[in-house]
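quick q for whoever's on today - can somebody do inverse folding on this one?? i tried earlier but teh output was garbage lol. tokens:
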């Protein structure tokens, strides 16, 4: 993804398979950064805008059957709105944006998970972001067996899919991390909440120190 280091703010994305602990860890990280003087905006995909909330309901909670290409385009429509209405303005104002899922989830789920043409998914995703790319991505990674035990009792569209799908998604995330090791930092998310929280803080603090040099 394109380098975004020249803009005032920073975009930190949190990625991983369902049950890896992303949503659990985003607020502790926000508090950690605020305590160090950063102005932080937390957000998520899908569902951070009025249109996005409707798309989230359709994509995750509805039983309407969606063709893979339809699914992809709906996620990208959410991203267009999200970037223009939330992420880009916050970055321009100098905020640190923490986003629960972003472009890597599209590549992992709609590309690797759905066994689609990842290069094409990437091209379409790039069109949706208006040049906005993550400065740092935290990949919370754990075995599927652990993630399954952490999932919500009520499964959404993706949590209901078989283990083979989720293993492909995890493999996709790991492939993305291997391709961009400076941007995507893998964090072992198999431990308890406090251990993962501390590991995230160490990685982010180290990255901020590197960025300030």
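ok took a stab at it. sequence:
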């Amino acid at each position: 993804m394109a380098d975004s280091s020249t803009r005032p703010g920073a975009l930190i994305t949190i990625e991983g398979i369902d049950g890896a602990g992303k949503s659990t860890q985003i607020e502790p990280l926000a508090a950690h950064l605020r305590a160090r003087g950063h102005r932080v905006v937390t957000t998520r995909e899908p569902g951070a805008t009025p249109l996005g909330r409707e798309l989230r309901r359709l994509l995750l909670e509805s039983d309407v059957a969606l063709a893979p290409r339809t699914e992809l385009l709906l996620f990208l429509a959410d991203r267009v709105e999200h970037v223009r209405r939330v992420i880009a303005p916050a970055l321009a104002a100098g905020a640190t944006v923490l986003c629960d899922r972003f472009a890597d989830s599209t590549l992992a789920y709609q590309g690797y998970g759905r066994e689609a043409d990842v290069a094409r998914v990437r091209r379409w995703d790039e069109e949706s972001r208006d040049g906005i790319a993550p400065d740092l991505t935290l990949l919370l990674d754990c075995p599927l067996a652990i993630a399954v035990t952490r999932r919500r009792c009520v499964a959404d569209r993706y949590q209901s899919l078989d283990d083979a799908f989720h293993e492909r998604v995890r493999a996709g995330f790991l492939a993305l991390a291997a391709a961009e090791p400076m941007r995507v930092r893998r964090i072992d998310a198999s431990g308890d909440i406090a251990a993962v929280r501390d590991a995230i803080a160490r990685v982010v603090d180290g990255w901020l120190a590197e960025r300030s040099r």
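fwiw DSSP finds eight helices and five strands in the chain. also The longest strand covers residues 10-15. so keep that in mind when u check it
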